[in-house]
């Protein structure tokens, strides 16, 4: 049986830190830097009718070498029908999820996080800062982790 259905069960804002230094920035002369990390973890009790994958996206925004202007973290929990049939296990009992599933979940999670971050930055100097689209496995500022 293949994975047949993905659905978002829950979205939770874990952290939002906005440095007071953001109000001092002159964005016309400041290059914004960013870092995106996606950590995907299968639920501990993986069985039919209980097939969940938790995707945590952390976005850090800064300028120059300082990545601490904004720290934003969101968790997206997915129910994935058929996940039990497609996961594997390593010798040390670590769950492995097919790359296409991780990529799909990571892309959707990053998109949701970007939208939520845009909303959170409303009314700040970073509201009009461009939050770039990212390509998994191609962008050096994006890291996908399978826990």
Q: What strand order characterises the main sheet?
A: 1-4-3-2-7
Average pLDDT, to the nearest integer?
Answer: 81
Number of strands: 7
- Head-to-tail CA distance between termini: 24 Å
Q: Tell me, what's the shape?
A: elongated
| Strand proportion | 35-45%
CATH topology grouping = Bacterial Protein-export protein SecB
The whole-angstrom Rg is 17 Å
Broad structural category: alpha+beta
Total of domains: 1
Uncertain stretches of 5 or more adjacent residues? none
Folded structure, characterized:
The protein is of the alpha+beta class and 147 residues long. It has one domain: Roll (Bacterial Protein-export protein SecB). It has 2 helices and 7 strands, in the order E-E-E-E-H-E-E-H-E. The strands form 2 sheets. Strands 1-4-3-2-7 form a 5-stranded mixed β-sheet, with helices on one face. A two-stranded antiparallel sheet has the order 5-6. A hairpin with a 2-residue loop joins strand 3 and strand 4. The chain starts with a strand and ends with a strand.
């Amino acid at each position: 049986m293949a994975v047949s259905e993905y659905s978002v069960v829950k979205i939770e804002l874990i952290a939002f830190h906005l440095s007071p230094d953001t109000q001092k920035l002159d964005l016309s002369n400041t290059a914004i830097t960013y870092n995106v990390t996606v950590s995907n973890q299968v639920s501990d009790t993986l069985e039919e009718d209980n097939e969940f994958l938790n995707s945590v996206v952390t976005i850090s925004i800064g300028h120059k070498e300082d990545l601490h202007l904004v720290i934003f973290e969101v968790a997206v929990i997915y129910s994935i029908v058929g996940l039990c049939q497609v996961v594997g296990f390593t010798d040390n009992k670590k769950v492995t999820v097919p790359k296409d599933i991780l990529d799909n979940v990571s892309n959707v999670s990053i998109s949701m996080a970007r939208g939520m971050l845009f909303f959170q930055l409303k009314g700040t100097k970073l509201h009009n800062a461009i939050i770039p689209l990212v390509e998994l496995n191609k962008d050096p500022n994006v890291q996908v982790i399978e826990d």
